[in-house]
Amino acid sequence: MKERGLRKKRVGTVISDKMDKTVTVVVERLVSHPIYKKYVRRKAKYTAHDERNECRVGDQVRIVETRPLSKMKRWRVKDIVRRAAL
Description:
Layout: E1 9-19, E2 22-32, E3 39-49, E4 60-65, E5 75-82
Parallel strand pairs: 3-5
Antiparallel strand pairs: 1-2, 1-4, 2-3, 4-5
């Protein structure tokens, strides 16, 4: 299957699945402080489209950038990397 263009990809954790066909994913990254050279955690929350409603809170998912699907949704769940422990 041919990939369409260069799309951004992120791996994050689902923190909310209360909406229909939508999940909220938090992506955490480490950045070096420019002066103190200490690593600082930065978080970003993305609203992603989950077509089959299969993601649950705590799942680690891979999301890819897509066209605007609604006011807030610009990402789509590609696959579930790791299921949450029950």
